[in-house]
Amino acid sequence: MSDAKVSLPAFYGIKAGMTRIFDQNGNHVPVTVVKLIPNVISQVKTAEKDGYTAYQVAYNEKRESLATAPSKGHLKKANIEKNLSELSEIKVSEVSADALGKEASLEQFPVSTYVDVTGPSKGKGFAGVMKRWNFQGGPAAHGSHFHRRPGSIGCRATPARVFANKKLPGHLGVETSTVQNVQVVEVNLEAGYMLLKGSIPGSKNGFVRVAKAVKK
Known about the structure:
With about 220 residues, the chain is mainly β. It has helices at about 45-50, 70-75, 130-135; strands at about 5, 10-20, 30-35, 40-45, 55-60, 85-90, 105, 115-120, 125, 170, 175-190, 195, 205-210.
């Protein structure tokens, strides 16, 4: 690894979509394409000052007209010239002040290794109980008047209220989801993409966190 880059246990990329490839035996392998974007260390968290050790990384470059003054000032302290709009933290056991302003390396994610991918799940909007909680529903026959409704949600006088966490219709999706033990199929730093076997959370063009697998 070059001196200009720092080895981190995770990085942030963009889910570009899904496609398929064929391995050496001609087997069809579905893969997800992750666009590799620069992850620059914008702040160093120390145990003496912050109570824990971590690196704050900045990513997602935008044009200068969309950058805010506070974000420009924060990046200027780290000598970062790019207008990066997203900030996230990656916890590490040890930190170094010399890493400030350096870019994260991807050499610790070679082919055939396993990673955990975290991202917001797809938003489904307002959903009923059958779609949201897999309720069975009522009879589909004519005149039943009970097809996709949730049914009774509680008693009358006792307890005279609806219990908390009762499964009811509501907003579905947009929750932080993690898929573990995803295999790295290909890494192309020149073209700026990584292929992961199978599917990962999130919508197209959404940000995902790729970290070393904790159970491998």
